[in-house]
Design goal:
Layout: E1 5-7, E2 18-19, E3 29-30, H1 34-46, H2 63-66, E4 70-74, E5 77-81, E6 87-89, E7 94-97, H3 104-110, H4 119-134, E8 138-141, H5 157-167, E9 171-175, E10 190-192, E11 195-197, E12 200-202, E13 214-216, E14 221-227, E15 230-239, E16 243-245, E17 256-257, E18 273-277, E19 282-286
Helix pairs in contact: 4-5
């Protein structure tokens, strides 16, 4: 089986509908529009479907916990790509998340570009849902967690307390990024340039020629499908057997198409899959089908 990936699929007649998202990160919101349902059906038609024999893991999760997600092996380490935009690593009971870009709204406001100042709360609320779902012992934030060097100091008290409540009772690792090369102020956690854990190396920026097992963020990958006059563009995980580039998680983050020349040298042409984020479902799309 190529790339050692497994996708759990919802029944076609589940009745679950969704709403086309206007989020800059391409993520879905709950709701129900025919357009979004059509988008998910289009992705489902193209996605590779594979069988999965479930086995209990160290975290004591059930098959139900994995429903709608995609399990992808990178350098032998099985990661669960969650439609919410995080990856769970059962063997290490670790949650991986990239490019939170907290306080991006306030950063733009300082330069005179006013955005609604609710991005941090929205991002932390979504992250809280992921933590409740997977119950990790460790969270590894893969850089650009804060939009600039002073962003952690601009957190309003409620957001700071919210973040600290998410950190409480678990190990929290901040990987440095180009936006946040310094440790956040007054939040705790461990600050590292990169982390070697098991078979994986966790860093912010993917490196051409890196050893197998790289998990990175930075590029905010998105993928595009075109079929029968319809076009679907979604945030995604860009993944091969040797590396994975995580989607951006922050509320105000955009995206870069995985066929952009910026990705040249990372995957050896189109030898990867886009794990595209639908409404509660990850669709495993071969790069050859992207446009």
């Amino acid at each position: 089986m190529s790339d050692s990936s497994y996708s759990f699929r919802r029944p076609e007649n589940s009745g679950r509908k969704s709403k086309r998202s206007n989020n800059p990160d391409g993520s879905s919101q709950k709701g129900g529009s025919p357009e979004q349902l059509d988008d998910d059906r289009l992705m489902a038609q193209i996605a590779e479907q594979t069988a999965f024999n479930f086995a209990d893991d160290a975290a004591g999760l059930s098959e139900h916990d994995y429903r709608g997600n995609c399990i992808h092996a990178v350098n032998g380490a099985e990661l669960v790509a969650d439609a919410a935009g995080v990856a769970y690593w059962p063997a290490e009971q670790a949650l991986l998340v990239a490019d939170l870009h907290l306080e991006k709204g306030s950063s733009f406001a300082r330069r005179g570009q006013l955005l609604p100042p609710y991005d941090t709360k929205a991002t932390l609320t979504r992250l809280s849902v992921c933590l409740d779902k997977w119950r990790p012992e460790r969270v590894i934030a893969l850089g650009d967690s804060f939009h600039d060097r002073e962003a952690s100091e601009r957190l309003v008290p409620d957001d700071q307390q919210f973040l600290q409540s998410l950190m409480q009772g678990r190990e929290w690792v901040w990987i440095t990024g180009n936006h946040d090369p310094e440790p956040p102020i007054g939040l705790g956690g461990t600050n590292l340039n990169e982390l070697r854990l098991g078979n994986l190396t966790l860093r912010h920026e993917p490196q051409v020629g890196a050893m197998a097992g790289e998990i990175a963020g930075h590029l905010h990958p998105k993928a595009r499908l075109v079929r029968r006059g319809r076009s679907v563009r979604r945030s995604c995980f860009a993944a091969s057997r040797t590396r994975m580039i995580m989607p951006s998680f922050g509320a105000y983050t955009g995206g870069l198409d995985v066929l952009d020349p910026t990705y040249d040298g990372l995957f050896g042409g189109r030898k990867f899959h886009a794990l595209m984020r639908g409404e509660g479902q990850v669709y495993r799309i071969p790069a050859r089908d992207l446009r």
